[in-house]
Amino acid sequence: MDSAFINTVATHETRNEPQECVLKPTASLVLDGSCAPSTSANLACRLVHIALALYLIPAFLIVLLVGEVGMLVVGMGRLFTRLLGSGDTLPK
What we know:
This protein is mostly helical. Helices cover 57% and strands 0% of the residues. The chain has a domain at 40-83.
């Protein structure tokens, strides 16, 4: 009877339940020189990102502003042509 009981007991593998996760220290968890926050290469990368942000954010805003001004000019032109007529009254 004991063997029948053992065979009917479902384990976590057969029930698709997650297993307990135990982290084991490995060499990949330790920060090496390429990821350490105090390296000069990491500082240089951060400075490059800051410089690009300081340059590209205002440039992007200027592009948006120029686009908005262009759309405003086209819209005002269409408004004036609609107010003045369809343009058929111009001499040929």
